[in-house]
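Q: My labmate handed me this sequence with no annotations at all. I'd like to see what the chain might look like in three dimensions before we decide whether it's worth expressing. Could you predict it?
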Amino acid sequence: MSLALALISPAGAPAVAAPPVPDPVTVGAAPSDESVPGLPGPVRRVALTDTSVVVEVQSPTGPKILTAPRVPAGTPPTWSEAWGSQSLTGSLVAAEGDVVHTHDPARGVDVLTWRADGGGKRDVPAGSRLGGSGSFVSVPAAPSGVQVQKSVSGAAVSLVLTGRPATTLVVDGTRAARLLGGYKVVSDVDPWTDTLGRGITCDQPEAAVTDDLGGRWLVVTCPEGVYALDQADAYRPVRLAAGPAPLTDPSAAAGLVLGLERHPGAETSDLVAISILDGSRRVLGTSSLPGIDLDDSRRAAAYVDGSGTVRVVDFTQWTAEGATRTDVTAPTTTVSTDAVSATLEVTVHLTSVDPDTDPVFLASGIARYEVRYRSRPAGSTTFGTYLAENSGNTGTSRTVTALAGSRTCFSARAVDRAGNVGAWSAEQCADVDGTAPVVKASAPATVRAVEGTGRPALTWSATDAGGIGSSDVRYRVTPRGGVPGPYQYPRDGQRTTATTFAVSAASGDTVCFAVRVRDLAGNLSAYSSSRCSLVDGTLPTITSATVPRYFSVSAAQNASAAVDATVPVAFSFAGTDDVGVASYEVQLRRTLGRDGALSSWTSPGPSWKTTTATRLQVDLLLGDQACFRVRARDKAGNVGAWSTMVCTNVASSVQFLHADIRSGATGTSGPQIVASIYQGGMPARSYEVQTGRIVRLRVKTGPTVGVMAVHLGSTRLGTIDGRSATSGWTYVSLRTPGSVALTGPLRLEPVGGGVSQISEWTVVR
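A: Here is what I predict for the chain of 765 residues:
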């Protein structure tokens, strides 16, 4: 229901016969500003209850509040300054039931005073509003709010309604109304219910004021006029016809609104009663004060006439409760539901219209719904009988539980508050998902064993039109060389909403998983095919790692330009593993020049760390040395040990020696560069300081060749005797003592006669 309804006046409201204007009854006399017997001064305000009249008078000593019992016409009232055992001071605000509401200007607070149970009084914030029965009071509450309390005890019967001034809430008897776009009617026992009364929207909503709540009528003043709202929800909201002057201090009675109208320039106001039901008006008297007050039963009103006399007028004969609801039209209902339900619960939504076309009376509104449904099981062509949905009569939706693959059809009808029963709606049906999910599962072929165990894991996904609910996982273990064990159904793998599941297994075990999935409707797929993982604890091994041991100067590319000459060197390797080698990691140590030391182990490029090749190549300069090692990684991630290091050397050209260099001087073939060391000549020396354990020379042999001494630094490594009956070339290697690396220049010296010749030399680190 909307919180704000349109303003509609009952143009076609039934006429009510107007009774004669009742005669006011004089209850006190103060014909002038002078004191008169019974009252010590002129009356400034009057309040009326079913039993008493309460007045505020201006006495020579200041304001006084006096009370008197209500007496028949012609009987002089007896005035008292007490309310039971309690005194009354300050200024009069209101009197309702057994409670008098006053204001204490000295302290800036309001005071509630009561007579019952020995009497008593308590302070409330200024601006509070006493309810019509005197039992409840609405008080301003911080921050910027209002709250309903019990008048005597102060106990709260509502929450603090923030953001609204106190004028937005009014209390009468056991009810209260507040502005909230429309109005909420609430109980004083169950503080604020959700019952929404019929509302209005002012032209300026924030300027609305709740004036009075009396009987079934709520009076609200908007800038454009005064409205009466029927809390019985029979009549539409009524805007009272405008009179000759604005209506002030409006109060509600049975079918009437009473208020004051002051004509322009007049010193008094007319006390008028306006019929809510037919709009007729009566002037009940003339008031010299701005306020009037109705008694608790709302059958009489007190005011002060033009002569200053307190009067009570009884208007019971003119009141009318108004008609009861006249709604005779049944509501219509439509239902809707999703075509397919992804779960076993099927929900139907209800929409009803209670025809609201009468210009005076409101449609009664929907009181309850009646819903029926029938189902057809999966695979059947026949529906069962209708069943009634009995989960409650309120609310605009109903949910029932059905079987997977079934079809459920609903119809509904509404009953309005007048008891009119609508026809059954057209039927709407919903199918419950009956298709099982489609499952895809995977597991790695191998997993790595860590400290003797591994964690094989199954990962899966599923598709279903209605959505996935949960999954069941099972697995079995086959030990190495054994037979498969029985399927295990782990508790934490049943009805799980996860999409991965792992178990612990020993090295050598093979774990096979399967999974099934159920959707939101409970449809269950078959178990997926097995997905198996081997827990691999066997490290891969290198079966071969080779590189050519030595490269001659003649193998170099661009050998005539010795500084830039390079030799392509290939390192070949292979490995083995029980589940297969996945990749290799290759490392290299090399010199950076003929006189450099070997570097630390490193992989020259990213591909060397995870290569799948079994041959890698590197280019070396003349005089360089390179060493290689390799290790394998298997498909489970196990990494094997490094292979034994293997090394290669590229010979240095004799161009890098201080020597007598001749090309082909002794009849060598090809583009050889020959160092000739003549008897009695100068020794050949290396340009740079060398560090190594072995010196390897390519030496000329023949009948005219002599003997040559080889030094590395200050250490003589030995002599090379090239004398031979036949001419040729050979390689000779000399080791350092203890194969300990020595440092110094390489020096070659002739010994005795003959000519010693070399074409290349190598220092092995």
